[in-house]
């Protein structure tokens, strides 16, 4: 379970250099015409150089040469056999974006006539070194772009990927521990879905009786029982329901009381299950072997809080995402007592929303919800080898929390623009989300999956194919 995090500073500097160069080549003469000469069919098209020498999808590339003309609509650039988007052309410069999948790296320029027929062609012997990078893409789900209403622009269909409509809500994502090809999607008050990676289908799952209402999360015990966690507003009512894997999660084997619960997360080593309670601000501890259940095992500093939980794979600590107060707490585990100790603030300021990267109380969040731990191979040998990735729902992005407590935006909000939307591509330059509510690490396929609720899609963050 690992993900490499790279420093892209070098590529940023090249991009800045290219942009500055673009400012010069895009200047105009006093009469308003672009500098440069039209294409001369009597002369060859020459590519003499290019910068930068390497990069990935979306890299700004500047070609130097001669006889490119001055009309970008009549210039075609291919890199590695893939057509690049041409932005600006002067007779001795072409400014373009590197296309996706330009692995071969050969650069070619073709001059076209008004009908798109080839007039002249040029290439350069040196190859662009294409670097693959992490990208946001769409795994499953689709909407009708002609319908602007987020609640009406999709159909709920069971079927193969590409013909299964959209997902209504995605409040929590969890893999079946006994079948890593089955991803369960909590639909809240809507339809719960099952993503089958082996068959590449999207299905549905329903629960009856007390378990059939609004659900906070779906979770699993360490031995593979499915837990349905209801948001119950009364004492003395069942709120967590356990279903057997032998029945394909249709036979309920037990239920326990829970009020205002948004968690049922097992300790990965000892197996006890940690719950939460909204009104009291409690973190509860349930032992599925003995049946002992202490609802107020841990007291949070406040009540009336929506607590979601993620436990470190080693079991050493857990993070508590307090969604409605925009903070994340941490509680360390006492292996002798087999329980967690008093929580303390890790990041954010209580009841203060915003979008600020940094450390501790300087960080600003806006409804952090689900998070997951991902091993970072750059931390190998350190005390904690995992980064924590979490969705910041109202900020429409995915953020990271390092073992040293540093929070930063990882994906979404391209170029600092926090507008919600839908777009695949570069993590920070192109990708957009629309109220992402859930996230999970797919260990088998080594990628992050994001429940992008109001886009009705599961998004994928992975190294470019």
UniProtKB/TrEMBL annotation:
Top-rank taxon, per record: Bacteria
Protein name per UniProt: IPT/TIG domain-containing protein
IPT/TIG domain residues: 46-115
Entries under PANTHER family matching the protein: NHL DOMAIN-CONTAINING PROTEIN, PTHR13833
Cross-referenced InterPro entries: 6-blade_b-propeller_TolB-like (IPR011042), Ig-like_fold (IPR013783), Ig_E-set (IPR014756), IPT_dom (IPR002909)
Pfam families referenced in this protein's UniProt entry, alphabetically: TIG (PF01833)
CDD domains: IPT_PCSR
């Amino acid at each position: 379970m690992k993900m490499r995090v790279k420093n892209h500073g070098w590529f940023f500097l090249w991009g800045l250099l290219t942009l500055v160069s673009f400012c010069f080549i895009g200047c105009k003469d006093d009469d308003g015409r672009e500098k440069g000469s039209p294409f001369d069919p009597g002369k060859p098209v020459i590519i003499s150089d290019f910068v930068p020498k390497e990069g990935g999808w979306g890299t700004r590339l500047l070609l130097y040469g001669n006889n490119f003309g001055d009309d970008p609509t009549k210039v075609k650039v291919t890199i590695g056999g893939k057509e690049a988007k041409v932005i600006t052309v002067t007779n001795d410069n072409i400014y373009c974006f590197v296309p996706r999948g330009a692995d071969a790296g050969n650069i070619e320029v073709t001059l076209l006539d008004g009908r798109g027929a080839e007039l002249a062609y040029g290439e350069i012997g040196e190859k662009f070194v294409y670097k693959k990078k992490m990208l946001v893409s769409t795994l499953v789900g689709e909407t009708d772009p002609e319908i602007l209403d987020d609640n009406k622009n999709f159909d709920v269909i069971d079927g193969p990927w590409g013909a299964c409509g959209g997902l209504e809500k995605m409040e929590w994502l969890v893999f079946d521990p006994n079948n890593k090809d089955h991803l369960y999607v909590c639909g809240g008050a809507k339809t719960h879905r099952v993503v089958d990676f082996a068959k590449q289908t999207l299905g549905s799952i329903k629960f009856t009786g007390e378990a059939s209402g609004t659900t906070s999360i779906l979770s699993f015990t360490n031995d593979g029982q499915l837990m349905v966690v209801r948001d119950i507003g009364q004492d003395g009512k069942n709120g967590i329901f356990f279903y057997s894997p032998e029945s394909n999660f249709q036979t309920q084997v037990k239920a326990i009381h829970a009020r205002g619960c948004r968690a049922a997360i097992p300790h990965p080593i000892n197996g006890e299950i940690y719950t939460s309670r909204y009104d009291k601000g409690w973190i509860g501890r349930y032992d599925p072997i003995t049946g002992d259940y202490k609802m107020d095992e841990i007291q949070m500093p406040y009540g009336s809080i929506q607590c979601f939980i993620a436990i470190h794979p080693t079991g050493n600590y857990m993070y508590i995402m307090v969604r409605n107060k925009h903070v994340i707490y941490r509680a360390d585990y006492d292996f002798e007592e087999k329980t967690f100790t008093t929580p303390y603030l890790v990041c954010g300021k209580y009841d203060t929303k915003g979008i600020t990267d940094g450390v501790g109380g300087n960080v600003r969040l806006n409804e952090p919800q689900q998070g997951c731990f991902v091993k970072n191979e750059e931390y190998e040998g350190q005390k904690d080898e995992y980064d924590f990735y979490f969705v910041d729902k109202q900020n429409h992005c995915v953020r990271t929390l390092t073992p040293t407590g540093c929070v930063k935006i990882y994906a979404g909000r391209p170029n600092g623009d926090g507008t919600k939307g839908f777009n695949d591509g570069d993590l920070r330059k192109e990708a957009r989300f629309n109220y992402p509510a859930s996230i999970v690490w797919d260990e088998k396929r080594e990628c992050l999956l994001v429940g992008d609720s109001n886009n009705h899609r599961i998004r994928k963050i992975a190294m470019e194919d």
